[in-house]
Amino acid sequence: MDTIRLHHNGPVCTIWLNRPDKHNAINPLMMKELVEAFENLGQDDSVRVIILRGNGRSFCAGADLSYMQQVSAYDQDENMRDALVLASLFENIYTCPKPVIALLHGAVYGGANGLAAASDIVIADIDTRFAFSEVKLGITPATISPYVIRRCGETAARDLMLTGRAFGVQEAKDYNLINQIITTETVDHALDTYIGNLLHAAPGAIAQCKQLIRDISNTTLATSEIKNDTAKRIARQRASEEGQEGLRAFLEKRNPNWLINRE
Predict the structure, then answer these.
(1) Which residue in 145, 185, 219, 250 is a FRET match for 158, CA 20 to 30 A apart?
(2) How far is CA 48 from the centre of its chain?
(3) Cα(156)–Cα(140) distance, integer angstroms
(4) Which residues contact 126 (CB under 8 A, 6 or more apart)?
């Protein structure tokens, strides 16, 4: 792969955005390679956790300048095809059956906020800078908006997206765009803690839980329908091989067969 690099460490796979000379700015090839990576890793039973991070001085500085110049010459149909690829990238991250941890540092501008918001857990270095700068370029943060607004809500989105202003990690945390602020000294501990908890959980249950959260968050079902739907989900998982193994392990005071200790 030309724009990303995969590093496997047992059940954990790190996807490195790997255009450090361009602050890992997004271009069409990176979009394509990221979509393929998340599709493949999502189906790889040996992978239990995915980490997304950037090589070099920044996580991602948004769209690549030459890519933006190219897009500026597109007609509406060409722009639509290109935008659908970008939208598919965020959807692939959001719907990936494996837990995705985004580790941010440096610049997180424009579409980079979509990569983060579509992830499950977001950790940011204390010096990270954010901006939804699209309106200053005469465009809108349309393809990232479903994921960002789910995280931060309408009030914060109006503030950050309409102004396009830069902001730091404390505001990002206050607005729920990130889960945890870290430093160079604490990053390994933070990652190890999250990874350890995720590896103690059943992989099938995690995939089902991610689907559950998506469905309930986006539901228009009546209360009675939600009751029946959620009852069916837990009944199905209880009766599954994982559910049975988890219950037996608990009763027998032993570790379940999916647990991986990294010590």
Answers:
(1) 219
(2) 14
(3) 16
(4) 169, 181, 182, 183
The pLDDT tens digits for 158-194 are: 999 999 999 999 999 999 999 999 999 999 999 999 9
The separation between the first and the last C-alpha atoms of the chain, rounded to the nearest angstrom, is 31
% of the chain residues with pLDDT over 70: 95
- Measured CA to CA, the distance from residue 91 to residue 117 in angstroms comes to 11
Q: For residue 148, what are the contacts with CB-CB under 8 A and spacing of at least 6?
A: 113, 114, 117, 132, 141, 157, 161, 177
- Lookup: tokens for 88: 């598919």
Can you tell me the distance from the alpha carbon of 61 to that of 23, in angstroms, rounded to the nearest whole number?
Answer: 6
Give me 15's structure tokens.
């996807």
Contacts of 37 (CB under 8 A, 6+ apart): 1, 4, 6, 15
Task: Please write the tens of the pLDDT for every residue from 209-246.
Answer: 999 999 888 766 566 676 677 677 767 787 788 888 88
Residue 138 backbone class (left: φ over 0; alpha: ψ -120 to 50; beta: rest): left
Contact 21, 61 (CB under 8 A): no
Check residue 8 and report its DSSP letter. Answer: E
Residues 6+ apart with CB under 8 A from 218: none
Residues 6+ apart with CB under 8 A from 49: 11, 12, 13, 98, 99, 101, 195, 198, 199
In this predicted model, what pLDDT tens digit does every residue of 65-119 receive, in sequence order?
888 788 778 788 888 888 888 889 999 999 999 999 999 999 999 999 999 999 9
Structure tokens at 68: 């933006």
Please check whether residue 34 is in contact with residue 4, taking contact to mean a CB–CB distance below 8 angstroms: yes
